[in-house]
Amino acid sequence: MDPGSLGVDIHINGTIIPHTLIDLGAAINIMTKDTMLKLNLQGSLRKTSTVLQLEDHSTVTPEGIVEDVMVSIDSWEYLADFLVL
User: Fold this and answer.
1) pTM of whole model > 0.85?
2) Which of the residues in the chain have pLDDT under 50?
3) Where are the alpha helices (DSSP H) in the chain?
4) In what side-by-side order are the strands of the sheet with 8-12?
């Protein structure tokens, strides 16, 4: 890991995702639809009624939510839910 880099490398479904920003205090986790497809998580996608309001007051409706995704950082693992945009 580059000490000057803001992101870390994580593993999801055996795939390395480099330079990922991690905020363990975040209320939501977001993943792009392209990333979901690359990680082969589309079978876990389910609809959600969530609508996100952005800083500029525009709204975004997620494609859905993927729940209980195992995220590995070094030797640490945790489950996370992701809204898919």
Assistant:
1) no
2) 1
3) 33-38
4) 15-20, 8-12, 64-73, 76-84, 30-31
